[in-house]
What we know:
Distance between the termini: 23 Å
CATH architecture: Beta Barrel
Amino acid sequence: MFNLDVPATGYAWWYVDGVSDCGTKAVSVIGFIGSVFSPWYHWSGRGNPANNCCINVATYGKGGRFTMTDRGVSALRATPNALQVGPSVMRWTGNQLVIEIDEVSSLPLVSRVRGTITLTPNAVTNVELPLTADGAHVWRPFAPSSRIKVDLEATGWQFDGHGYFDANFGTRPLEQDFSYWTWGRYPTQAGATCFYDANRRDGTALDAAIAFDHEGRAQLVDAPARTPFKRTLWALRRETRADPGTMPRQVKAMLDAPFYSRSVVETTVNGETVQGVHEALDLDRYKQPLLKPMLAVRVPRRAKWTF
């Protein structure tokens, strides 16, 4: 699951999110090799993905924190069942993903973020979806329907909720092949439905709608049209699938950046009203050179690490 030879200029990331059953808190964790949103990887010329790795942790709700420390190759240890970057590790036990976190949040709220997140899939899928015709970018939804348990060393940051686990792999920069994409995962009565929509730079589009049942079986499904909804505070456009005559809406803000949005969104699909995690990514904005120094403030570089 984690032992991967990432090609030069390439990337891999393993993504987990979870939303509390009460809806007031959420969390996301991303383990990166060749950190696609690291200005340091971009400035390095993308010659060695292992030299720009990190485990990004963000908590959303009262007292939420954001951590994303770009680390060098000495901080990386990858085996088939574990990805360790410096003091934090994602470990697959055979039936659970256990994430042990020990990070420091970035400005303006600098503090220790420490604890354990445990994700328990209802099932693990065997689905793999190429995002481009040549397979240069691939999405691997390991566990679209899961439960998550968050136990952080901070008051109020212990909760259970619905969770999700996937991975993306690629051989080229995202901004080289895509101008915009949206993704969403929505728990349903039958399991979970995921939408992956992207505008490719060759003029083609990705329009993927996949339903997963609680046993991990997947099938392509018909989905309503992409439907725009309210822009973010950075005026980033957003859209997701929604039945005709219905309007998606944000029910919880998560991450709001000039080029990227993550939020809990409610929409109605094939008659079922669902709430799940949604992202929008504007890669035309991301590739602007002036954005990289802004990112460096939120993504500090710590090149050396000793175990």
